[in-house]
Design a protein that fits this description.
By secondary structure, the protein is α/β, with parallel strands linked by helices. The protein is 47% helix and 15% strand. The chain has a seven-stranded parallel sheet, with helices on both faces. α4 runs parallel beside α5.
Length: 272
């Protein structure tokens, strides 16, 4: 075989660029969402920063030269309004059209399985799964009408394996992973790729508030990389999945946990 018979070599750094592409980031106000908004903007995307807190939405939008949108991602009427308004709002900041949706909303409350009540079970499925369903069904139609694009969701290591006192959260995240795979199969033929990242512990403002320094140290010791994840670690993986570098990646869940998920917690004797 001669070189001329081989495939052409693309511009790989250029495949990371998203110049002018409009991306809706749901949960953009802080933590992973804020860092993802910055990462997408640095790659050239025009970002619509969605959050329930108007101050957080506006702050992130100002930082990335994007546009803020305030609403509840678990309420159908709000999500329908979001995607009805998104094309015009993105055009107003120079986007060539809607090309992506990144959904980062999620929260957990620690509760043992035997102490769970219906209210907390339902709360987890709203805050973890319902908004993703709405993003797929309502946002998917918007992407279809725009000619295709990408969706990236934030799952969790708790949806792939299990963690103590995470039964409701883990079940909802497992549901999210199932939804991502189903959406990838259904929407792939119309030009929409759907993937997810699955972090372990991420040192967001919320997590740092309830784990504290002791919790951080314990989780760092549990990681083969000897540290906990930072929001930018997850944002970097999201940008990969949102860009054309991952053009043939569909229906996948990328673990971003520093190797915790592949480690067997073998008890090592003190004398070794």
């Amino acid at each position: 075989m001669t070189r001329s018979d081989d495939t052409a070599v693309p511009d790989y750094p250029g495949m990371l660029r998203m110049d002018g592409r409009g991306v809706v980031v749901i949960g953009a106000g802080q933590g992973i969402g804020r860092q993802t908004s910055h990462a997408l903007a640095q790659a050239g995307a025009k970002v619509l920063c969605v959050d329930l807190d108007p101050d957080l939405a506006n702050d992130t939008a100002a930082e990335v030269a994007g546009v803020a949108w305030v609403g509840n991602a678990t309420v159908r009427a709000d999500v329908e309004r979001l995607f009805a308004e998104a094309p015009g709002l993105l055009a107003g900041i120079g986007a060539t059209g809607l090309g992506g949706i990144v959904d980062i909303v999620g929260m957990a409350q620690y509760r043992g399985l035997l102490e769970l009540d219906d209210e907390l079970w339902d709360w987890h499925h709203d805050i973890v799964l319902r908004h993703a369903y709405l993003a797929v069904s309502v946002g998917g139609r918007a992407l279809r009408d725009a000619g295709g694009g990408v969706m990236v969701f934030v799952a969790s290591a708790s949806g792939l394996t299990a963690a103590p006192r995470h039964a409701a959260y883990g079940a909802a995240k497992a549901g999210l992973i199932g939804l991502v795979r189903s959406a990838a199969v259904e929407l792939g033929p119309i030009g929409i790729r759907v993937n997810a990242v699955a972090p372990g512990i991420v040192w967001t403002p919320r997590v740092s508030g309830y784990l504290g320094d002791k919790g951080k140290a314990v989780n760092a010791m549990n990681s083969p990389l000897d540290r906990v994840a930072l929001p930018q670690d997850i944002a970097a993986a999201i940008v990969f999945l949102a860009s054309d570098l991952s053009a043939y990646v569909n229906g996948q869940v990328l673990s971003v946990d520093g190797g915790v998920g592949v480690k067997f917690p073998y008890p090592v004797p003190d004398h070794l």
